[in-house]
Amino acid sequence: MWCHAGWPSIMCVTAWRALSHLLFNSRLMTLILNPHRLVQPALEPVSLAEAKLFLRVEHDVEDTLIATLITTAREAAERLLGMSCIVQRWQWESVPFCGTLTLPFGPVRSIVEVAQRQREATSYSVLDSGAYALRGDTLVLQAAPQTGTQLRVIYEAGFGDEAIDVPATIRHALMRHIAALYDSRGTAGVVDLHPIYAELREVRI
Fold first, then answer.
1. DSSP 8-state code for residue 202
2. CA distance 66 to 182
3. pLDDT given for residue 5 in this prediction
4. Is residue 125 located within the same domain as residue 58?
């Protein structure tokens, strides 16, 4: 017997049970949905001078404000697009699916450490670097993990170490976002991010 997706029915049942386990395990879903940034990027993808030029601001009175807007825009864009601009370090805990784990907030550049623990264990054991491989943004385990195994992955992600490494389309969108924040300063208005990042979201999807 086969399900509509072309899988054997036993595979559908197994997949559904696994999905149900994830959906009803609130602690695990919190871990999955909330990767933890361990190290902030060393610089912003848009410099203060670039932002001021885009805003046509020639004085220094609002430098602190504009610098804050740059960081605010970058963090919002990273959350919205699920990416990292400048290289930063992340930690994520999750359950691998069929021995693989797609890491959020890419592009992933390198794996720092992978550790695992069983469902009832209280501590992690670090895996040897030969026990896994990185393929794009996906961590692939060389051996299938036991049921209930949870991974803790520490990794570095971002387009590069310099602002010039970030695609020009993203940097331009960030400057438009910064301008929108600057124009709405002192008001209770909410900046609509959809027209700013719509094209980038479609490309990533």
1. H
2. 7
3. 44
4. no
